[in-house]
């Protein structure tokens, strides 16, 4: 494959005049709100990224794709692009009917003329497309647990491109890239697909690929949907932008691809090749474990490390793009240079840092050597994954009224503010009830709502890198657990049981409430006429008898330090 035909590729959009008319007509049609994944698919269907598809697959095409990677007419196409819908929606529509496809804001993106409606055999699809019906595969899990039970197929008419508010200047349709290559006179272009930040190994690999193919280079990262747990695309694009000027600008460009990946290894590599062909490239890099989903439920890799290269090679002529294959790149210490793993000079020391190790180093704030990555990339990654002592966390005090929660929480807040570095917010029981939960009483239902509100606010604070200190009674174990789960997705949760006995609280009776509760003047009073479920495994249990608030707060500080959340 020496050079490509850079003529425009067919798109599925109507002209702008007809679009307006069609949009008005479509307002009356049954509407389907596209899922994030379907929205990515629709964009690439409409702009020609999925050429020659003319819409979501009908049943005959789907069967062919699942069974032998071919549409009904024999064209190579490895990935079922399907419109999955709920049974409730499917019941309302029939083949022959048009439906409006809308984005999350309700904007009409396209019209689909339904040609097929069927309930797919998902286990068969999983085995055929992903090689195993194993829920450890993210797309198999999606297929069974997220996707709707019914598929609708049919051609679509594009009305407008989905709107993106981020990195607009870096997004190009296939025809925009084709036009750019035409303008630059780039007849040979090698594309590099990635869902990870670019480190030095990637740069070396792309340099070598461009040299080998004697081609220009397109860095073509996926910003649609990638593997759950990947670095988010905002961070990644900032990383790419930080290193793109390390490439020669006269032979390299970068463009973002709004693809929803399926992590289907070999089939995905073939699919990526077809998509890149549509974007006007001539060569495509396939490295080790291309689009690999990780381990299956038996702890084994779903695909062999070079299965993708084999399948791509087999179909190279039909894909219409030449593969540039690479072994895993490793750093050779003595040579201070990267080599493909199979070309390492004898007796040399090989250095490598896995993705897991990189994440550990980021989490613990450990060094990431310059041979591995660029300081600019590490700076961006550290901003999103700061070390533990700069991440948000929540300290959740629980205990009876008058146990000393508020006093200790206040002392802790002041100490943390004295240390500085992170904003500290105190969500005290009384204060929350005044500002957030003023309409609530003390029934179980109302207490649960109150605690969940506190949990939600604390989780937002934690997510945004702050420290939340909560001090409600929170008498129920299940609600405390729910709050823990809310917060632990963003940062650490430290449950502190202030274990002052009910007798001691009543003896102190600082607010005079126990007396009123005993007299029956306050109903449902925790510890007297309402339950308190003692936490079984709090991170810390504090006994306030014989200890002042300052000492108790210091105990919490020591615990935070031992958890790596604050530095001495
Ligand atoms: S809960 O159960 O977590 O929703 O309670 P919380 O929001 O922390 O509110 C506790 C404060 O409200 C006062 N108060 C009562 N507490 C317990 N039971 C009843 N029936 C009740 N009525 C009013 C009491 O002053 C609590 O304040 P603290 O700071 O805990 O002493």
From TrEMBL:
A Pfam family the protein falls into: PUA_2
Domain ATP-sulfurylase PUA-like stretches: 10-160
Function in brief: Catalyzes the synthesis of activated sulfate.
HAMAP family the record matches: Adenylyl_sulf_kinase
Name of the protein this chain belongs to: Adenylyl-sulfate kinase
Gene name linked to the record: cysC
UniProt keyword Nucleotide-binding present: yes
Pathway: Sulfur metabolism; hydrogen sulfide biosynthesis; sulfite from sulfate: step 2/3
Gene3D superfamilies: HUPs, P-loop containing nucleotide triphosphate hydrolases, Sulfate adenylyltransferase
Enzyme Commission number(s): 2.7.1.25
Keyword Ribosomal protein: no
Reactions listed under catalytic activity: sulfate + ATP + H(+) = adenosine 5'-phosphosulfate + diphosphate; adenosine 5'-phosphosulfate + ATP = 3'-phosphoadenylyl sulfate + ADP + H(+)
Origin species: Tabrizicola soli
């Amino acid at each position: 494959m020496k050079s490509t035909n850079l003529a425009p590729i067919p798109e599925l959009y109507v002209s702008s005049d007809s679009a307006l008319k069609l949009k008005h007509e479509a307002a009356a049609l049954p509407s389907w709100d596209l899922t994030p994944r379907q929205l990515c698919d629709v964009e690439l269907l409409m702009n020609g990224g999925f050429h020659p598809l003319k819409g979501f697959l009908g049943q005959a095409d789907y069967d062919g794709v699942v069974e032998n990677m071919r549409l009904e007419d024999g064209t190579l196409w490895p990935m079922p692009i399907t419109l999955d819908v709920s049974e409730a929606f499917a019941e309302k529509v029939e083949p022959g009917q048009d439906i409006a496809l809308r984005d999350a804001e309700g904007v009409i993106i396209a019209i689909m003329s339904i040609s097929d409606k069927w309930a797919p055999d998902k286990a068969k699809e999983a085995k055929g497309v992903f090689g195993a019906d194993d829920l450890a595969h993210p797309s198999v899990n999606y297929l069974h647990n997220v996707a709707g039970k019914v598929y609708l197929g049919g051609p679509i008419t594009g009305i407008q491109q989905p709107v993106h508010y981020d990195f607009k200047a870096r997004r190009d349709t296939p025809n925009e890239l084709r036009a750019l290559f035409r303008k630059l006179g780039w007849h040979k272009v090698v594309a590099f697909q990635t869902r990870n930040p670019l480190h030095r190994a990637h740069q070396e690999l792309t340099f070598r690929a461009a040299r080998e193919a004697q081609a220009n280079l397109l860095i073509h990262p996926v910003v649609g949907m990638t593997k759950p747990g990947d670095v988010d695309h905002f961070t990644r694009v900032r990383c790419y932008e930080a290193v793109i000027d390390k490439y020669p600008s006269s032979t390299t460009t970068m463009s973002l691809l709004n693809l929803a990946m399926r992590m289907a290894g070999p089939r995905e590599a073939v699919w990526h090749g077809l998509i890149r062909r549509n974007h006007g490239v001539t060569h495509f890099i396939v490295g080790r474990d291309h689009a690999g989903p990780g381990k299956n439920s038996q702890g084994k890799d779903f695909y062999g490390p070079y299965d993708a290269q084999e399948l791509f090679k087999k179909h190279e002529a039909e894909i219409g793009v030449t593969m540039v294959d690479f072994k895993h790149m490793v750093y050779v210490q003595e040579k201070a240079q990267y080599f493909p793993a199979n070309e390492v000079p004898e007796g040399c020391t090989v250095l490598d840092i896995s993705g897991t190790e990189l994440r550990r180093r980021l989490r613990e704030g450990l060094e990431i050597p310059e041979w591995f990555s660029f300081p600019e990339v590490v700076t961006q990654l550290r901003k999103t994954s700061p070390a533990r002592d700069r991440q948000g966390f929540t300290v959740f005090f629980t205990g009876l009224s008058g146990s000393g929660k508020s006093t200790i929480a206040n002392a802790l807040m002041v100490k943390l503010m004295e240390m500085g570095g992170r904003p500290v917010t105190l969500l005290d029981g009384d204060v929350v009830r005044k500002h957030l939960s003023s309409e609530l009483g003390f029934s179980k239902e109302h207490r649960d709502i109150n605690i969940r509100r506190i949990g939600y606010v604390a989780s937002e604070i934690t997510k945004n890198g702050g420290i939340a200190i909560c001090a409600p009674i929170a008498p129920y174990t299940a609600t405390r657990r729910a709050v823990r789960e809310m917060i632990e997705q963003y940062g650490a949760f430290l449950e502190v049981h202030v274990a002052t006995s009910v007798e001691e609280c009543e003896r102190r009776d600082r607010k005079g409430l126990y007396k009123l509760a005993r007299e029956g003047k306050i109903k449902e009073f925790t510890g007297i006429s309402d339950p308190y479920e003692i936490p079984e495994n709090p991170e810390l249990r504090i006994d306030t008898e014989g200890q002042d608030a300052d000492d108790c707060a210091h105990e919490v500080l020591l615990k935070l330090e031992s958890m790596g959340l604050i530095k001495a």
